[in-house]
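Query form — protein Peptidyl-tRNA hydrolase

QUESTION: What is the three-dimensional structure of this chain?
INPUT:
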Amino acid sequence: MKCIVGLGNPGNKYEKTRHNVGFMVIDELVKRHHWQLNKKKFKGIYALESLAGEKVLLLKPQTYMNLSGESISAIMKYYQIELEDLLVIYDDLDLPAGKIRLRTKGGHGGHNGVRNTIDHLGTKDFKRIRIGIGRPETNIPIMDYVLGNFSKEEEVAVKGSIEKSADACEAWIRGTDFLEVMNEYNR
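ANSWER: The structure tokens for Peptidyl-tRNA hydrolase are given below.
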């Protein structure tokens, strides 16, 4: 079973914020395939579905960003999901809005949701898609920036990166080796 996790914060207040692009990719996959996030357990909401004969678990942790690892580790343990079958999607300040980067492992880069995930899994060796949100051009505090909404210009670029990220997820689910998916989508 493949497990795809989008990081974000629960609630309408955060729905369209920069920090929630991981949730937005899960929402895009749900919309494309007419799936439903209809299960609530493990401090998250999730769906168990299948695509191209592969079982897929889509998860949106409901712990708030900084405690995402609690939900991820609990659901992986319960469903006996191997680390190689985990893909985590989240925002990245160091990439411009609209850019995505796929990796097979890495550090947290200052991202508290990823830091907590690494802490709970006991490893940084898991697949990820980083979605660029850019850095603030003014002296706005980082927390205010990531919890703010995209500008109109950014919205167009980010919509494209959400769609590309969902495409990459689908390619991986359908059996394309993740390194090939990386080569295709990191261009």
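ADDITIONAL NOTE: The beta strands are 2-6, 39-41, 44-51, 54-61, 86-92, 100-103, 127-132.
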